[in-house]
User: What shape does this take?
Amino acid sequence: MRNTRKMVFMAVLTSLGVVLGIVDRFISAQVNTMLIASTGGLLFIPHLKFGLANIVVMISLYNFNGKDSFLMVTLKSLLVSLILGALSTFIVGYTGSVLSFLVMWPLIKLFKTKNTVMISVIGSFFHLVGQMFMSWQVSFAGELYSLGGILVQGVMMLPVSIITGILIGMIVKEIRGYLERSRVFEL
Assistant: This one.
């Protein structure tokens, strides 16, 4: 793929990742509002997101090299955090994104794994692990939660992580099929 065409695809994917990240944040806020309303405030899952931007990350991982994909992940995380979040939000989210990337990239590139659902579920799980670890680290600064609270949050988010990982993997499988048939990523 020529450099200009590759740069345009990366810019489009990054922009789409930012938009999906923003949409994801608004959807998760609505879900939490419904949880609070329906449980009388007893159930609330902080940092709940469905990982819509992971669709774009996985498309990038399957079609570009690790360096370009990592740059896209970094830019997407930074831009979404600048638009919607705070420094702690960026640190926690970016840690999850990097850990997820570091697990998915070798599975796709080194082991030639084509199973998008499996890759997505594994990536989703490690994104959650990265977020929980960094939340725990940030909590020492008094910003977030105690270790017990973080573990409870992780347990509550694990089923959501697995389900959304499956759904995102299925979406990526369909998109990859379309991209291969349309030969978008060829010269």
Observations:
- The chain has a mean pLDDT of 87.
- Residues 3-39 form the longest helix (37 residues).
- The helical segments are 3-39, 54-63, 66-84, 87-109, 116-139, 147-182.
